[in-house]
Design goal:
Blueprint lengths: L6 E2 L3 H13 L3 E5 L3 H14 L3 E5 L1 H8 L9 H21 L2 E6 L8 H17 L6 E4 L6 H16 L4 E6 L4 E3 L2 E3 L11 H12 L5 E5 L18 H14 L9 E3 L7 H9 L2 E6 L1 H17 L1 H4 L3 E3 L2 E5 L1 H4 L1 H22 L8
Parallel strand pairs: 1-4, 2-3, 2-11, 3-4, 5-6, 6-9, 10-11
Antiparallel strand pairs: 7-8, 12-13
Helix pairs in contact: 2-4, 2-13, 3-4, 4-5, 6-7, 7-8, 10-13
Length: 356
């Protein structure tokens, strides 16, 4: 018997899932998608390991999903692509038998019209269907002051909670560069969050809804770097969790749900410690892009004599090669490598068999 229902989870179901993760010592992979191949690969991997999963889209991923030729000056294509992707996930998740969290990734104040468009659509959708399209959205206002960051998040959580949508916020900055967000030259001090900042946000948002998570910076950097170039301070999560427990007089409860950004290339030890300190979600993008690339690369290497020409291959000069250059072949090769790599991340996150 499954622990969570198949399909897109939202509202109390989302909170129950994250509570289960904290209680049982695992975290969910939050995997960025850019099209049906990556969406299907994410859910396929989750079905293989019998665990819930998080499908997430950035504004760039949404734009690509809708079509890069589309105008996007007010995030209209990003929103349309995300809505299209969400419809796709709602359509197939139950067929795979997988509980899915649908999420959007980093959104700065500059691009907040993207989230406004998604919420406008979902408020009408909720009125008609009694549920939202997305489980949660992320606001990354870490470039603003703490007070402004949290103040804006309060307003959005108030709006989201009315239609059963959760919120993820960011405190401190994740370094590096990803999908058009470049923090590669940011002041190193901003890569580390103070426990009092975490509790400030937790206290403010808790008064509106318990359905939120916090991406606290502890040296995280987007991308993959050689060992020693990224210095994680996972103890920041432990200290923040303990600080919140002290303020609430609730020792051992792990009240804060943390999110691990910039997790590509992290050691198993750091991942395990972060989960112990309350991380319930780890973002994956860079490693997954590389895995998909490797699948396509290896396909071309294996069949290079069959895809060089439409007709003629080592088996005969007049033989057609259509079955080799069919785009579905190389895309499926990318998907297969993507799924294999994601299975490894499920294992790293202690997230195998979590829907049994």
């Amino acid at each position: 018997m499954s622990k969570f229902r198949s399909g897109v989870l939202y509202g109390q179901e989302l909170m129950d899932l994250y509570a289960d993760a904290k209680q049982n010592g695992y975290a969910l992979p939050g995997v960025n998608a850019v099209g049906t191949s990556s969406v299907n690969g994410i859910i396929e991997a989750a079905a293989k390991v019998q665990s819930p999963v998080i499908v997430q889209l950035s504004f760039g991923g949404g734009h690509f999903y809708a079509g890069k030729s589309l105008k996007n000056d007010t995030m209209q294509a990003s929103a349309a692509g995300c809505i299209s992707a969400a419809m796709h996930v709602h359509q197939v998740a139950e067929m795979y038998g997988v509980p899915v969290v649908l999420h959007t990734d980093h959104c700065s104040l500059e691009n907040i019209v993207w989230i406004d468009r998604l919420l406008d659509f979902q408020e009408a959708y909720y009125a008609k269907h009694g549920k939202p399209l997305f489980s949660s959205h992320m606001l990354d206002l870490s470039e603003e002051t703490l007070e402004k960051n949290v103040g804006i998040c309060e307003k959005y959580l108030t709006r989201m909670s009315k239609i059963d949508i959760g919120l993820e916020i960011e405190l401190g900055i994740t370094g590096g560069e990803e999908d058009g967000v470049d923090n590669s030259k940011v002041d190193a001090s901003k890569l580390y969050t103070h426990p009092s900042e975490v509790y400030y946000a937790f206290d403010k948002l808790s008064k509106i809804s318990p359905n939120f998570s916090i991406a606290a910076a502890f040296g995280n950097v987007h991308g993959v770097y050689r060992p020693g170039n990224v210095k994680l301070s996972v103890e920041i999560l432990e200290n923040s969790q303990r600080y919140a427990e002290e303020q609430l007089d609730a020792a051992g409860t792990k009240p804060v749900s943390f999110v691990f950004h910039g997790g590509s290339g992290s050691s198993p030890e750091d991942i395990a410690k972060s989960i112990e300190y309350g991380v319930i979600k780890m973002n994956l993008d860079t490693d997954m892009q590389w895995a998909f690339n490797c699948g396509v690369r290896d396909y071309y290497q294996e069949y290079r004599d069959y895809v060089a020409e439409q007709i003629g291959n080592p088996e005969g000069a007049d033989l057609p090669n259509k079955k080799y250059y069919d785009p579905r072949k190389l895309l499926r090769a990318g998907e297969a490598a993507f799924v294999e790599r994601l299975e490894q991340s499920f294992a790293d996150l202690n997230c195998i068999g979590r829907n049994k």
